[in-house]
């Protein structure tokens, strides 16, 4: 299904509805200050129904404040958070979830993710996520930055298949093999850093943006949606928040989708999931 409205959603492998389009709040400054609450208020006014945060972003309090202050019913807003690397392990993850739960101040969290595949810890961390899922305070659990071999290792002992794998994904890092593997397991792929941390000056993208009379950011976000990838662009500026969401009234041709697909360089702007030290 190709999204045609900002509130359109995919159905995860456990039946949960997850909006295709959301707002990322990574690097909102100051931490838990008014900026993140203002950004979320603007986003909700613009129709966003999906907010992505993490313990490591240090703005869960602000996210919770903004959601509670909204006139939109809680069940219509999808909230994701993540366990930070330093908290991974079974008991420490349970404590970390409790801390995030209290900071958000919501009755439940829609999606809770393992932020990075910390070697020697992510399987115990997953056991903890399965426990909080059974307890009912989180509606879905998943992973972030997992490569195929991480997923295979996790699934060998998991009782619950992850609903989501949130990965760095954009035209220069198309992650086709990971996407295909996740599809085969019923795991929804979600793109973080879909706008390449602002590195959008590529002639193919700029020429196509002119053709469609759109910004390059809008072009790339539409490419995500037509590939059935959940996407969460980050912005704190009202004009960008509204502009990024204006991607539901045009469609890229098959040839132009293929042209963007061909830009892949396996280029990362973030850390390598097989080689990180934080």
TrEMBL record:
It holds the Pfam family Aldo_ket_red. It comes from the Bacteria. InterPro entries: AKR, AKR5G, Aldo/ket_reductase_CS, NAD(P)_OxRdtase_dom_sf, NADP_OxRdtase_dom. The keyword Oxidoreductase applies. Keywords: NADP, Oxidoreductase. SUPFAM superfamilies: NAD(P)-linked oxidoreductase. Residues 22-264 form the NADP-dependent oxidoreductase domain. Belongs to the aldo/keto reductase family. This is Aldo/keto reductase. It comes from Alicyclobacillus fodiniaquatilis.
